[in-house]
């Protein structure tokens, strides 16, 4: 046993040496889906921007990967080892402009007047970053949808951003702007260095007043309502109730349809699919992954004891999967519609 | 429990911590265009022993309703006998089955995303079902890897 423990311990210590992680492969696995294989962005912000890479320290990148951006799509990669994290960052650094240096993590505070900064923020930043610094709507952008901007403005009023970014980093961003995005140099916009310091002080003051998470916690994963009608009546009622809420019935089928021959399908698990394309379009503008809980669907099931139930996913529960606060409101709306339809159909 | 059990469990825990990935959604970027990836997706689903039951053409509905979008589809799939037995035994799985994968174009590339099947463990406590969900998880990961690596 002692030998086994010693061997395991040795492997644990030596593992990273023997298997030096491939930063490109790790990036491909964990980051490329959102940020693009070459860092050009998509659902996630573009990373291969010279102004970005020459301004952010490795600590900023490391904290961003480790803690994500709560409520803003970017997940927290808590399970990556420090070695893996460094390998990913090294890969991202290959996009640095030739001859440029990795910035140091300068924690020197910027002294400014936050009250004055608030007024300047409202005038110069709020249009893109939101009135409270909550960021542009949706975060997730994709080339699959029409888009006006190459990037949605990041949330500044976000605990993880404020933990990762130093005052100096924010200040440099304001001084220089960021080529390839709508973020223009504040100096070029006519602001003074003192104005910029005041804005930095205001952004830093967000730490004292965190925004509510908006996440739906404690929700059940599915919705279930017992029907007082027969199976067939419940299916008919369900379609009527969906139509009454401006949905279009797009399909009705057995749950096993396509899995078994038609005559072998269980006909007592009946799915009604329905759509409101306006709602779908709005949800996908907020997050292109929203198709995960589409199309809308309620299943009528006759249980072994003869009871009839209406069952569906719980959109409020599923909204947690997306780490996107922008989806919370539409998911709450969809939840209300599902419950209303199911209750009406059960009568 | 002997004196070696605790350190052994700790070491095994440290080993496995690096492997686990706790993201609720799995997503990959395929370098191939949408039509090729769509074809490949249906192929890998079938290669892993699942059956594609239906494809929902979300983009067609959106376009017909006047909304601009690139290709966007939802592929439903499952292992017939597993879907039948699991929905019979655990009705709470009904809203989530058959499984589905969302696929959409992003310029010349394609994004493929799905709910991590490990999530189903939250719905069913039975360890026997967990074995199936673990297999689904492994299969989905393998399918997505194949799509992202295809050139």
Could you list some keywords that capture this structure?
heterodimer; A: 347 residues; alpha+beta; Cytochrome Bc1 Complex, Chain D, domain 2; TATA-Binding Protein; 5-stranded antiparallel β-sheet; 15 helices; 42% helix; B: 151 residues; 5 helices; 44% helix; globular
The CATH homologous superfamily of chain B: TT1751-like domain
Q: Could you estimate the helical fraction of the residues of chain A in percent? A: 40-55%
Major sheet attributes of chain A: 5 strands, antiparallel
CATH first level of chain B: which class?
Answer: Alpha Beta
Indicate how many domains the architecture of chain A comprises.
Answer: 2
- CATH topology of the largest domain in chain A, which one? Cytochrome Bc1 Complex, Chain D, domain 2
Order of helices and strands of chain B: HEHEHEHEEH
Number of helices of chain B: 5
Instruction: Say what oligomer this is.
Output: heterodimer
What does this protein structure show overall?
- The complex is a heterodimer of chains A (347) and B (151).
- With 347 residues, chain A is an alpha+beta fold.
- Chain A folds into two domains: 21-97 and 120-208, Cytochrome Bc1 Complex, Chain D, domain 2 (Orthogonal Bundle), CATH 1.10.760; 222-346, 2-Layer Sandwich (TATA-Binding Protein).
- Chain A is built from 15 helices and five strands.
- Chain A has helices at residues 2-18, 23-30, 32-35, 50-53, 58-67, 82-93, 114-124, 126-129, 159-164, 167-176, 193-205, 231-243, 277-286, 315-318, 328-346, and strands spanning 222-227, 248-254, 269-275, 296-302, 308-313.
- Chain A has a five-stranded antiparallel beta sheet.
- In chain A, a hairpin with a 5-residue loop joins strand 4 (296-302) and strand 5.
- In chain A, helix 2 packs across helix 6 (82-93), helix 7 (114-124) packs across helix 11 and helix 12 packs across helix 15.
- The termini of chain A are far apart.
- Chain B is of the alpha+beta class.
- Chain B has one domain (24-149): TATA-Binding Protein, CATH 3.30.310.70.
- Helix content of chain B is 44%, strand content 23%.
- In chain B, strands 1-5-4-3-2 form a five-stranded antiparallel beta sheet.
- In chain B, a hairpin with a 2-residue loop joins strand 4 (99-106) and strand 5 (109-115).
- In chain B, helix 2 (34-47) packs antiparallel against helix 5 (127-149).
- Chain B is globular and about 45 Å long.
- At the A-B interface, helix 1, helix 3, strand 1, strand 3 and helix 13 of A face helix 1, strand 1, strand 2, helix 3 and strand 3 of B.
